[in-house]
Amino acid sequence: MSKWVYRFGQSGADGDATMRNLLGGKGANLAEMSNLGLPVPPGLTITTDVCTYFYDNDQNYPADLRDQVQQAISQIGEGVGRCFGDAANPLLVSVRSGGRASMPGMMDTVLNLGLNDDTVKGLIDLSDDPRFAFDSYRRFIQMYSDVVLGIEHHNFEEILEIFKEENGYILDTELDNEDWEGVVDKYKAKVVEHLGKAFPQDPDEQLWGAISAVFGSWQNARAVTYRRLHNIPDSWGTAVNVQAMVFGNMGSDSATGVAFTRNPSTGEKAFYGEFLENAQGEDVVAGIRTPQHLTKTAREESGASAPSMEEQMPAAFKELTQVFQKLEGHYSDMQDIEFTIQRGKLWMLQTRSGKRTAKAALKIAVDMAREGLISKEQAVARIDPEALDQLLHPTLDPDAERDVVTTGLPASPGAASGYVVFTADEAEQMRAQNKDVILVRIETSPEDIHGMHAAVGILTARGGMTSHAAVVARGMGRPCVSGAGGLRIDEAAGTFTCLGRTVGRGDLITVDGSTGQVMWGAVPTIKPELSGDFATVMEWADDLRELKIRTNAETPADVQVAREFGAEGIGLCRTEHMFFDADRILAVREMILARDEAGRREALAKILPMQRTDFEEIFKIMAGLPVTIRLLDPPLHEFLPKTREEIEEVADASGMDLERLRRRVTELHEFNPMLGHRGCRLGISYPEIYEMQARAIFEAAIAAGKSTGRAVVLEIMIPLVGMKAELDTLKKHIEQTAKTIETETGEKVSYLIGTMIELPRAALRAEEIAESAEFFSFGTNDLTQTTFGISRDDSTRFINDYLEKRIMERDPFVSIDEHGVGELIAIAAERGRQARPGIKLGICGEHGGDPDSIQFCQKMGLQYVSCSPYRVPIARLAAAQAKLKAQ
Amino acid sequence: MSKWVYRFGQSGADGDATMRNLLGGKGANLAEMSNLGLPVPPGLTITTDVCTYFYDNDQNYPADLRDQVQQAISQIGEGVGRCFGDAANPLLVSVRSGGRASMPGMMDTVLNLGLNDDTVKGLIDLSDDPRFAFDSYRRFIQMYSDVVLGIEHHNFEEILEIFKEENGYILDTELDNEDWEGVVDKYKAKVVEHLGKAFPQDPDEQLWGAISAVFGSWQNARAVTYRRLHNIPDSWGTAVNVQAMVFGNMGSDSATGVAFTRNPSTGEKAFYGEFLENAQGEDVVAGIRTPQHLTKTAREESGASAPSMEEQMPAAFKELTQVFQKLEGHYSDMQDIEFTIQRGKLWMLQTRSGKRTAKAALKIAVDMAREGLISKEQAVARIDPEALDQLLHPTLDPDAERDVVTTGLPASPGAASGYVVFTADEAEQMRAQNKDVILVRIETSPEDIHGMHAAVGILTARGGMTSHAAVVARGMGRPCVSGAGGLRIDEAAGTFTCLGRTVGRGDLITVDGSTGQVMWGAVPTIKPELSGDFATVMEWADDLRELKIRTNAETPADVQVAREFGAEGIGLCRTEHMFFDADRILAVREMILARDEAGRREALAKILPMQRTDFEEIFKIMAGLPVTIRLLDPPLHEFLPKTREEIEEVADASGMDLERLRRRVTELHEFNPMLGHRGCRLGISYPEIYEMQARAIFEAAIAAGKSTGRAVVLEIMIPLVGMKAELDTLKKHIEQTAKTIETETGEKVSYLIGTMIELPRAALRAEEIAESAEFFSFGTNDLTQTTFGISRDDSTRFINDYLEKRIMERDPFVSIDEHGVGELIAIAAERGRQARPGIKLGICGEHGGDPDSIQFCQKMGLQYVSCSPYRVPIARLAAAQAKLKAQ
Question: B484: which of B256, B313, B454, B775 lies 20 to 30 Å off by Cα?
Fold first, then answer.
């Protein structure tokens, strides 16, 4: 016989806190508190296995469940000296859901269950308070009808309002017991009106109705959506807790409240919470009465007049503080607690780890480690790396007024104010005049990069969280709101309209990339602070982690930011980003339009000194740390104008032959540029391009080495290799260039040559590729695209659909798909090591900043992850946690 | 000590025919003939290992090579009683290249080597014929200078011409010995003029010069290109044969000739060949004199007057026919032979398997099997499957005159004549008037499919052998010439120009897709004949093979052709091709433009009866054989117009709202459509599309089953699956549709649901996918695209470059890349079988018709391959050969 039901209460419990998966969070903690000897009203937990069984068996229960529940209810009754359904001495219970993770959208709570026209009389006798009994009964009818019978609560609230109006009452407390009895009758009539049958009087029917409502709510729309957004598997299921009622509404010596053992907003070590006298749980939530403070200090600080619990109920308060200390000591974490005081006696209804802000999380972790409550490892393990993102960017002053124009997707965190511009060139011009600008585009493309750099924030009408704008903005640390659907941009007129309002070029707006809000005017922001607890946690994390953290960056500004955030090298320096700068794009286009190699070499000669300067600056900032430079990757047509109008504009401005330009654009057009003439394929078709880049790199390395006195740790990376012969061909060219420069300068540069592993074939053929490659860097963006056959730029069309329908559990462009892409990484790592033991392995691409992916990298034994500058601290923490989990 | 040199000759040989890899084809066969006791002038073969050593060691030879050569040369001299370099009794030798495969572009032959100013006197004494001796000397100087010293032969031919003119001679035979001696002096002076030094007089220097020229020619441009085109690895290398000279130019009782043991053109069992009296080998090739026939019959048939060898030299002829019989019996194959008769004595200089036409190959194989010379298995193994292609299509009458306008790539075999049209719509209109048309386009796209169907041939200005036009034309069996570079199409004027000529709309032209030629006017063609030997070989192949052969086809016409070619089912019926028909595209576009599901369903209802009719016809033709239908695959924008002009045109013609059409085109635009919203992703976003298709399929199956009396063997295939959940979702919909139809009609349809494996992730997750998929069909086109990260449509840009630079050995879109894509197929097959033992596995996509890929499929244990109708016979034969090789 399976055990479907676990009991808990003052005499101990069947379960404990470790049984969270089976009993849910609430049930496991009720059991744990019972075992600790805390005053917990007795109850039972129906396990999550029953939920699974319920859905696997067409919403039927295991055969022996009813017996187990009945037996446990009897024991609860015995514990409190009552009997469920007994008219004279009725046991009343609450029914609550409780999964592994707390989850809004689930059926929450039914209180006072077991009341009916008979037992209410017993409750009158027992409490000697008919008003309390009828008040409890009417609450029960309303709650039960709402969550179990599907009759919305406003139906009942209306009845009460009308009753009060008719009788000239203002407050609920003005109703006497007969009034409440009358209200109960009207409530019952309302149920008949809705259902065509009476409110269930049989306590057993009530109980099973409530239990089924909990299990049923596991699959309601809100719960399903919540699970999708928070990656909670359907298979987890929920538990149901049935617990003997205690009453906070039994007079002025009764109360109910919620509390935190520390301040969840600041992390300060001080009890924090509120209570309501003579009230039941839902009154606190409902917000009809203003709750009172828990401590005297808090009351005084807020200037409130109503006495604190410390003052009003000193004995219960003292007991409560002892419970606080016991629980925090036991759980080694800040607790979020619910309690009830029934006629002066404290009862504990719930404890759990309290939610907190990022700032509070850091402070609590550091404080507790210093108090000796937890180890440094635990402190590090406890911080959600993603939450740090809040702290790394400027945020809007929470007290400032906001005039929200529209809301899009929170595509890149941080907030910024600036003047509206509509093109990348405008952005650069305004920036040159020291003006902050917000770049507003329908969507961005690689040609906008210089404008995105010049802007303090980006706003797009189209594109998802992984659109070009979003990815690039996150990489640069620029706030970005993408896919603001309501936006209509009229570039010609220099305006955009939104919800009927028009914003023009030069108008001041604020974007908040953390929330997706776009606001009129400049909203004040608060700067991030990275010292104190933040710095302490980072330091502890660095001591723990094995994975090195590098950054993906190519501008000196970004490289500098990354260094300050603790990057230990560059994992991906994308040389093509340097090609888009206004002063270079002309030479780049000349190169592309050249009729032959000689013409290309002529144009490349103009680019060489600029690339050399770029590299030299980067090498100087990263002195002594490794720098991985990827040679030119995108297809050449990305550097050319696209539309008829743009082509004419470029021809006009540059003096290039319009017809030739047009023809070249047509020639270079590709159906699937992602799978086209790019990456190392360019290097093979036009060896002179890679030769120029290699020369710029080597010359810069020699110069930077001299000026810093530290040799540059240089890694040259060949993109999009699928065949060993590609790498061999290009490696030979680069080595040749190195030799030429050695001969010219008499200086020897040391360097490694490696390759991206970003094609399935490269992963499969890693053994032979590693014979030539001195390192692998997993380009998981492209590897995900090719493994899934999904273009990231086009996937927003259907990926959301997939996530909603649960066809995908997670967006594979956000977190590495361990089963598909991950297997290719594992294959490549294993085969690469076979050919070259100890081969340097790392990952670049967006996944390098994703904590789950970082954990996967740790498991694969990679040496480093590389991510955008603003993700570096997140990666440092995540890497430490990954190491802890691996132990 | 390594053995670098192998001897052969009348006293036997060191090697034999099995040592082809080491000795080259020529050397191995000379050794084999020696062992058979045939009259072979003694000689030596320097092995291909020396060639490998030569290139591995900076063009140096193994230290002990010279000694081995010298020793062997001495032995050769001993055998014929001469001595190399001896002025009185000189041994003369020929030097010839000879690799594993015969290869034009290599240095071919130097004859009479060893002659110099001294030895020529010895030769006069020995032959008693000064004219012969000086003629031999001048031939040697010219040949050696040309192929070893790099002085082109026309330099010497000019000298001879001038000499003849000055002396009033017309024929070479008019020169006497002194004339020839004078010519030799002039030749030597020419060498001094070119090189600044004398023609080498040292026989050893001559010998090593010639040997090095052979090895050096292995890497000359022509040889490299030839190897690339014929997939001959660089690593094979060539051997060098040095052989004692015998002379066919020692008077009228001497001769030289070439012969085949059967007719290489028709396959007829009759000796076939020609000879020249008093001549050396190169005279036959040079074509200055008309050679005589070998047999009397041949002479009489051709009406020639010069006597045949049978008549002129009956003794030598008799000996030769005995050699023919011996060799054919020994090699069990038709032989291609070179011989020389020196003063009445027959010498064998070469034997090898003779090249033959496809028709001859079939006849010879069938005849030999019937003669008991070879087994049926050998007969089947011996036919080159690719060669069959010649026989399956109409060919140009070889006797007809051709006025060639231009030459492009031979993209799809066969020849056809028709009137020029420039658009698919025109093609359809003309076809409706029963006119044959040739569709001429810059390049084709999916919208042209109906026009390609309507045309009898296709000509494009752009695109390679794997361009859209080429692939689709091959699939349809339409002749196609692609990438005709010289073509300039002026669609507006309705003309194309080429090499200065203009061809207009409605002009009659002929395209020959087997050669790439485009001709003015209608050139008569010859119809293919598929009975007789062809049918016999096919029958034998069918008895042998294990792999089933299916076809990729969707029009009743194509399905019918495939059936006649022996297809055993349909492996890929692409339903989208049915969407492009002129009468449907409007409804398809309505569906795409619909605002909501209801609108889409309304449009789909119009397509349903048409799809049902399509399927019913196909099912009837394939009665009792399996039919795999792939649900809609391409992105929806493929069905919409693209350019501004086309959009306006469509809006005009269809009455659709221009703005809405334009917006939808923009919305649906994708950066990488190959990786976009297509395949099963469409079925998930718009379940109603697949539902309509499933309904059409099931209803057609019921109707066809009734009318043929044989149940349809139905396989429904879901494209582009990467995740099991995709398949599960769609499988449920299809099963639901089947149930609905069962309820409606009371008929039960049986069917399988399976999936394409065309994404790396699908291959890796094959085990879980096979839990739901009842069959796998490997879509190797897309699998190659994603595994390599190469778009087939865009790859012509660089794949040629890759092949030329030997970065790729073969185009992976032609032959499966066994190491990369192949490993994924192996993984998928293994994992698929793990979950579902005996799961049906097949391959569709172009590779299904490629013999090498078919061999791979046999190795993988697939059940069938599916290819375009015209490849079916090729696949049948290749499958039999694959099975034989596997044994």
Answer: B454
